[in-house]
Amino acid sequence: MSLSSVHTCHRGLSQCRIVIVTLSLFRFLSHPYRVLGYCSLFFSVLYFITIEKSNTVHVTSFPPSPVSHLFMSRVRTELLDDIKKYQTLTDDVEEPRILLTGQIKAGKSSFFNSVNSVFKGYPIFQAAACEKETSVTKYCRTYTVTDSKGGKRLPFKFCDIMGLEPYNDTGILVKDIISLISGYIPDNYKGVWETCTKQPSLADKVHCIVYIIDANVASLLVEELKKKFEKIHEEAHRLGIPQVVLLTKVDVACPIVEKNLTKVYESRYIKEKVKQVSEIVGVPVSCVLPVRNYWCETELDMKVDILILKALQTILRQADAFFDEIKQRGTSSKSLCNFM
Ligand SMILES: Nc1nc2c(ncn2[C@@H]2O[C@H](COP(=O)(O)OP(=O)(O)O)[C@@H](O)[C@H]2O)c(=O)[nH]1
Ligand SMILES: [Mg+2]
């Protein structure tokens, strides 16, 4: 029996005793006083119900920390297991290619670092966060993650590219992103993107586009940038590539969430931001995931891990939906151009 049910049982016994005493009194009362007896019975039952109600509140207000810690630990383990067991639905692709795109400093590199940290078991900052992106060289940097230090390679890879900026003089161009998602740009490619013309296979394509948007600037995005998101969304939609948004820096955006990350789904402010970016990018609200990245920590935090893992699980599920659709259509990697 759990601690809370033992507690309720004790209270229940004392309430029963009150009712029994009242009933016995009632038996010995003569007729004229029976009305008074009824009244006392009524009030004791009322008292019983009131105490029962206050009991429930008392029981649920048990110190929550050990319970929630246990619960969170289970959720985290389940998410980790689910991701480790992940296998693509097609033999043509071993590791889904996940593109991280968004404005500079939105948290693209930090998201990869966070995923890497959760699987390594300690914070690790492999991808240079806050890297200066002044170079004009387009570089599709590919990152893989291993399970624990020196462990097995996990079944996904991230493409990290330069930021998508409102104006074309800085940042990656929409046409470059379209070349990348269509499969023309290989992993870690540093050459001239325009000369890449090899016929792409399904494995060369991007299997999920992840827009990384800073929750603090979501409402300040300029029209030019929104139009770029729109163009990428249209093309991705045409190609059937799934799209997900990660709303980063939720800890900075909302003071309630900063104090307690478990409130992230309850925060009205974050809910509003989720709706806002879902409209800007054109993805359903269920595909906008609030995350808090590791960026300066020395130890892992279970609450941060859960948000990161939930985001990754959603990305992989979306990639699966893409593979499933291709399977349903009977499109093989060789005849991919027909699908595109
Ligand atoms: N507080 C907070 N800061 C973050 C978060 N994610 C990223 N950052 C900060 O934002 C800066 C830019 O992140 P970075 O990953 O380099 O962005 P990128 O340019 O999109 O790759 C980092 O130095 C971090 O300080 C987050 O979730 N919360
Ligand atoms: Mg970066």
Automatic annotation (TrEMBL):
SUPFAM superfamilies: P-loop containing nucleoside triphosphate hydrolases
InterPro entries documented for this protein: P-loop_NTPase
Signal peptide stretch: none
Coiled coil segments of this chain: none
Superkingdom of the source species: Eukaryota
Single Gene Ontology BP annotation: immune response
Protein name (database record): G domain-containing protein
Organism: Erpetoichthys calabaricus (Rope fish)
